[in-house]
Amino acid sequence: MEFALSEEQVLLQDSVAKFLESVSDIDQVRAALGGGGDGDIWQGLNELGANAALVPEEYDGMGLSLLDAALIQEMLGRFVTPAPFAANVMATTALAASGTEEQKQKWLPKIADGSARFGIAVSERTGAREGADVAEQDGKLSGKAMFVTGFEGATDFIVADNNGKLYMVSADASGLKKFDLPTIDKTRPVGELKFDDVAAEHLPTENEPGKAADKVIAAGRILAAADSLGASQRMIEKAVDYAKERKQFNRIIGSFQAVKHMCAEMAAELEPCRSLVWYAAHAFDTVPEEAEVMACHAKSHLSEVGQFVARTSTEVHGGVGFTDLMGLHFWFKRIGLNRQLYGGPERVRQEVARLQGWAAE
């Protein structure tokens, strides 16, 4: 049995990394966030075939697995890339699992060629907020959805109602109001949607109520964990590089035992997470009975380890780690948002306990 990435997967990740090195260094990220937009990055990822990754071949896609998507997302986290890749992957998951044949033929090729950009409004299913819910009546949606991912530039939205049923809504639909929802992470804008009898296209499913949305959420949790994995790895590397250069008392700070221990502990905490994320993504496609459980484990554990790495790496840098000069805050904040997306670690652990029969419903 093979427990490593295939040659094709290694090549895929290396290709994405080389592309991002040229378009998503920290100065280019600053420029994009300063009003330059993500157009060049989005177009380049599309030319690489990132948007087509999970789209089945019969719909002009590449027919890859969620593990392949997680490898791409890991690199996006590593380079704090401002691109809504994860949202389109979640939309592909929703359509492939729950869409009619007509819906698949209409939308999946558009996702594959990059002409459709989806936002994902499922957060109320992972943490209800007062006044935020979505109800359907006679094919129209009313209510409010918060923390919509892939918000900026979205042409359409995948929306979950109170019962976990999925719908597609056009970004310019009558009665739909969109608002920016500021978070600490400026590389991935999220938003709020308000529905007032908004026409919606249902994604029918034969699964029990809520299962369609739960599958999309599981994919999102795995991708958030992969993103934190990439961001955390980069923060460790930046801390080690800084420790090799910075001098205090005429000595490289990396020679101090306390600093060595900090760097070693970060590496020891993060390395086992890699196989956890890989298996969670693998299980999503090949071991469906374990998919939700493993997604919860990966998301909750990476949330905690990522927070530890973000804090410790910043401490290694000392005071300069808090400045924009180093840019360390981009990774720090990205990990922070990943921790809360699709459920914080406490809630996700409670959910996985219920899934395994260890806690009451």
Structure description:
- The chain is of the alpha+beta class and 361 residues long.
- It has 3 domains: 7-113, Butyryl-Coa Dehydrogenase, subunit A, domain 1 (Orthogonal Bundle); 118-203, Butyryl-CoA Dehydrogenase, subunit A, domain 2 (Beta Barrel); 211-355, Butyryl-CoA Dehydrogenase, subunit A, domain 3.
- The protein has 11 helices and 10 strands.
- The strands form 3 sheets. It has a 4-stranded mixed beta sheet with strand order 1-4-5-8, with helices on one face. A 4-stranded antiparallel beta sheet has the order 2-3-7-6, with no helix packed on it. It has a two-stranded antiparallel sheet with strand order 9-10.
- Strand 2 and strand 3 form a beta hairpin.
- Helix 1 (7-23) packs parallel to helix 4 (66-78), helix 4 (66-78) packs parallel to helix 7 and helix 9 runs antiparallel to helix 10 (328-340).
- The relative contact order is 0.11.
- The mean pLDDT is 92.
Question: Which shape, going by the Cα principal axes?
Answer: globular
- Main CATH class of the largest domain: Mainly Alpha
Largest sheet, spatial ordering of strands: 1-4-5-8
Q: How large, in whole angstroms, is the Cα Rg?
A: 20 Å
Counting structural domains, the number is: 3
CATH topology name of the largest domain: Butyryl-CoA Dehydrogenase, subunit A, domain 3
| Order of H and E elements | HHHHHHEEEEEEEEHEEHHHH
Number of helices: 11
Overall mean pLDDT stands at 92
Judging by the overall fold, what is the CATH architecture of the largest domain? Up-down Bundle
**Approximately how much beta-strand content do the residues carry?**
5-15%
Structure summary, number of beta strands: 10
Largest sheet report: 4 strands, mixed
Helix amount? 40-55%
